[in-house]
Amino acid sequence: MVVTTSSRDYYDILGVSRTADESEIKKAFRRLAREHHPDVNQDPGAEDRFKEIAEAYEVLSDAERRSVYDRYGREGLNNQGFSSDFSGFGSFGDLFSSLFGADIFGARGGPVAQAGDDHLVEAGISFVESAHGVHHEFTVDLVAACDTCGGDGGAPGSQIITCSQCGGQGQIQQVVRSPLGQLVRRSACPQCRGAGRVPTTPCPDCRGLGKRMAHTTLELDIPAGIADGQRIRMPGKAHAGDPGAPNGDLYVEVHVAPDERFMRDELDVVSVMTIPVADAMTGTTITVPTVDGDTEVALAPGTQPFAEHLIKGKGFPQIQGRRRGDQRVVIHVEVPAVTSEAGKALLSDLAAHHEEPSHDKGHGDGLFGRIRSRFR
Fold first, then answer.
1. Which domains, from first to last, does the chain contain?
2. Contact 53, 68 (CB under 8 A)
């Protein structure tokens, strides 16, 4: 779910047009962030304003999120499983440093603990499972803390000492000039990799890294109503970060297998049932498969091609809401070829016994109108 700080349009928040390019969006964010950052702006509402600006930038600076937002708004972001990342930073300065690789408010001492990387996996489910939800178990290779050294990188019994290159700071600094003024760029110390401490004897299993790849089994409840291509975020379930830093987030992209019996139309299920022309003329009862199992549907005499029968409540549930779609059963009438003279004579006699169908009754433009309405 996206953590929103207001309901205002993201473009209005940054003061840019909907056609603004990446450089315009970044420039607007830099200007507004500098003006409203709580460290430099003591107004009571500065913090909330800065959160709003950061959230807008986070969405509009990401091509995928921006595309979803432009088409579907905030609700589309929610349905895609996006989550605002700025809420996870320790401070607003950390957010700004993460976005631009610099600290415009002065460097702070201490080791730089790097968060773990995010990871994307795919999960395949059936059409029926997408309607009901399913418990999914999967295995993935992820970076995890080394169980031999406990994550400190040292061989059992070795000492952990202060890094000589950074003096225990875990970072090296470089001062550069920019249009925003003097910036202090910080990067992890290459010797201790940001930990500020190094082992006297590296761990033999992880070679002193404190982390290694692990075969990890995870479980996930895929919600009912999920659509093909949607992603689910599992916070903190991806690659391990440095000691004291959070793990990355795992994203599960769900792929729904096609089912020859069904099609999905938003929350509705659409199915096509074929019946002989004789059954269409006299009426019949057919067995219709649904996502909840088979059900019987009675068809009246004179059922026309493309007639539609509605089965209430047999569609997809709304992921965030109480609404559930229906199943629309479209009737396809199979008309055989009659070539024999005897058959033609029988049909000629039959014409005296059937009622003329009212093709236009209740359907506006007749047959073509009904076809257009089905595939609108």
1. 1-100 (1.10.287.110), 108-257 (2.60.260.20), 263-374 (2.60.260.20)
2. no
Q: pLDDT per residue over 138-166, tens digit each?
A: 999 998 888 888 777 778 878 888 888 78
Provide φ and ψ at 213, rounded to 5°.
-70, 140
147, 172 Cβ separation under 8 angstroms = no
Using one digit for the tens of pLDDT, what is the confidence trace for 259-302? 999 999 999 999 999 999 888 888 999 999 999 999 999 999 98
Mean pLDDT of 10-20: 90
Q: What is the DSSP string of 194-255?
A: TSSEEESSB-TTTTTSSEEEEEEEEEEEEPTT--TT-EEEETT-SS--STTSPPPPEEEEEE
- Residue 306 token pair: 């493309």
Phi and psi of 223, rounded to 5°?
Answer: -70, 150
Rounded CA-CA distance 25/8 in Å is 16
CA 237 to CA 242: how far, in whole Å?
14
SS3 123: strand
> Which three-class secondary structure state does DSSP give residue 60?
helix
d(CA 271, CA 286): 13
Q: State the SS3 of 160-186.
A: EEECCCCCCCCEEEEEEEECCEEEEEE
